[in-house]
């Protein structure tokens, strides 16, 4: 049986900025600290954390929503999840991101849930903040191996 994850995150950036950070390969790699290749087309391939995460785009609404089919390299070969990112403008130029991921294998659910927070939302928040605040930095993580961190959390 598979599980679902639902998380809501508030970012101090406009929806367009959050969308671009998630969909632009270079920005995605910058905030995760690991290689990413993200097509901007429906049906196009997606990979993150090198080859650890692979998938494809199911639905894209510019600056508003992303739906992707995802799987991790250590999941059973027939296991796929569907991840959705819905972006809504919030007061003060912020963005409310509602994230859902359905079909996560039971053994991976706890680690994947923690991984979204530690390996995506927090570094993304830091990168976006550095771009809007004084003394903007590159937004690259200083972790020696973010992909290893994601794999560790997925196995937890």
What does this structure look like?
The protein is of the alpha+beta class. It has a single domain (2-155), classed as Alpha-D-Glucose-1,6-Bisphosphate, Chain A, domain 4 (2-Layer Sandwich), CATH 3.30.530.20. Helices cover 35% and strands 36% of the residues. It has 4 helices and 7 strands; from the N terminus they run βααββββββαα. The protein has helices spanning 15-23, 25-32, 106-132, 146-155; strands at residues 2-11, 36-38, 45-48, 53-61, 65-72, 81-90, 94-105. A 7-stranded antiparallel β-sheet has the order 1-7-6-5-4-3-2. A hairpin with an 8-residue loop joins β5 and β6 (81-90). α1 (15-23) packs across α2 (25-32) and α3 runs antiparallel to α4 (146-155). The chain is globular, with a radius of gyration of 15 Å. The protein starts with a strand and ends with a helix. The relative contact order is 0.23.
Topology, please?
Blueprint: E1 2-11, H1 15-23, H2 25-32, E2 36-38, E3 45-48, E4 53-61, E5 65-72, E6 81-90, E7 94-105, H3 106-132, H4 146-155
């Amino acid at each position: 049986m598979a599980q679902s994850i639902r998380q809501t995150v508030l970012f101090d950036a406009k929806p367009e900025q959050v969308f671009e950070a998630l969909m632009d390969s270079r920005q995605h790699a910058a905030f995760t600290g690991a290689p990413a290749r993200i097509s901007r087309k429906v049906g196009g391939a997606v990979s993150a954390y090198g080859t650890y995460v692979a998938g494809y785009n199911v639905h894209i609404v510019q600056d508003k929503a992303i739906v992707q089919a995802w799987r991790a390299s250590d999941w059973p070969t027939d296991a796929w999840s569907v991840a959705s990112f819905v972006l809504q403008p919030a007061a003060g130029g912020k963005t409310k991101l509602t994230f859902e991921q359905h079909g996560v294998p039971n053994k991976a659910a706890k680690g994947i849930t923690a991984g979204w927070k530690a390996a995506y939302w927090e570094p993304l928040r830091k990168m976006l903040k550095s771009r809007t605040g004084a003394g903007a930095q590159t937004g690259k993580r200083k972790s020696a191996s973010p992909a290893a961190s994601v794999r560790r959390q997925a196995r937890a």
